[in-house]
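Example record used in the benchmark description.
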Amino acid sequence: MHGALIALFIVIGLVLVIGIWLWATYNSLVTLRNRVDEAWSDITVQLKRRADLIPNLVETVKGYAAHEKGVFEAVTQARSALMTADTPAQAGQAENMMTGALKSLFAVAEAYPQLQASQNFLKLQADLVDAEDKIQAARRFYNGGVREYNTKLQMFPTNLIAGAFKFTARDFFEVEDPSAIAEPPRIQF
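Model output (structure tokens):
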């Protein structure tokens, strides 16, 4: 009888330890998934902020360079793609479009010295640089969260729980052409 009681306590203890481990592992996966979702939200906020600056920048440049219709259309299309991107892959493609369009826009601006001296243009340009810096920081934070989450999903024995509860890996926010965003568009006065 005494041996059966000890065996029962051992079984109960093992069940409790396994239960606590399952509970802690599940909660840590939920926490990491929520951090990744929050980080993605931060990226979308910063992309929207930048996208909201673009029309003002375009209008400012339009006043000086009305004949550069193709550049303005490219910026508008890039902004639209950025605003409708739902996944990191789509955002990366839109990011490439936006970078190219902004380079073209700033190239047009270089041809107009009076535009470069405009306080409105200079303020918009500074706001855009600030937005770019914040987007880069948000991307690094998001990608760090994705790395941590995906690593935990793939580690044994956590991968067993992750599979059972349908936790799925997340995509990194990458751009197709890293050289396109290696440096922000430059304006030379």
